[in-house]
């Protein structure tokens, strides 16, 4: 669960560990949120899609990422926002709970350039934390 952040005022997210190499973990995340927009647009269904990297050796990690937020409104409009992320994640290596604080500015660029300063706080639970990068150059070229 995330309060504010990449999904607007609050969102529910699913994150998957894609790859773990040395002190860097790569994750993919998608989420869902509902947010009131305005009179002209009604209510927005927000779908943030993120790719993140978690950098650090133990429980304390730097989180860097980039993503897109797709919003579809009840009045038929849609919006795309680019969402860069920089933040801090704490997860004790022996526990499944994690906590995050992130800066996630919302950048709109379709009709004109706008940037909204935004941040988020998250609490999450890890179901499975096992993934390794597997790159086989021979199979990539055959």
Task: Give a short synopsis of this structure.
This protein has one helix spanning 137-140; strands spanning 2-4, 10-21, 24-38, 42-55, 60-73, 78-90, 97-103, 106-108, 114-116, 119-125. It has 142 residues and is mainly beta. The radius of gyration is 17 Å and the shape is elongated.
Describe the structure in your own words.
The protein is an all-beta fold and 142 residues long. The chain has one domain. Helices cover 3% and strands 64% of the residues. The protein is built from one helix and ten strands; from the N terminus they run ββββββββββα. The strands form two sheets. An eight-stranded antiparallel barrel has the order 1-2-3-4-5-6-7-10. It has a two-stranded antiparallel ribbon with strand order 8-9. A hairpin with a 4-residue loop joins strand 5 (60-73) and strand 6 (78-90). It is elongated. The termini are far apart. Residues 136-142 have low confidence and may be disordered.
Order of helices and strands: EEEEEEEEEEH
Largest sheet: 8 strands, antiparallel, barrel
Number of helices: 1
Arithmetic mean of pLDDT = 86
């Amino acid at each position: 669960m995330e309060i504010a952040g990449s999904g607007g005022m609050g969102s529910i997210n699913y994150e998957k560990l894609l790859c773990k190499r040395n002190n860097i973990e790569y994750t993919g995340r998608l989420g869902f949120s509902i947010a009131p927009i305005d009179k002209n647009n009604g209510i927005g269904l927000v779908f943030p899609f993120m790719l993140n990297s978690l950098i650090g050796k133990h429980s304390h990690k730097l989180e860097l990422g980039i993503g897109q937020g797709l919003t579809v409104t009840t009045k038929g409009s849609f919006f795309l926002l680019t969402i860069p992320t920089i933040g801090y994640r704490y997860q004790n290596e022996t526990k499944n709970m994690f906590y995050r604080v992130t800066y996630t500015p919302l950048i709109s660029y379709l009709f004109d350039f706008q940037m909204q300063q935004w941040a988020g706080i998250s609490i999450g639970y890890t179901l499975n934390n096992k993934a390794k990068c597997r790159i086989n150059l021979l199979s990539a070229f055959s």
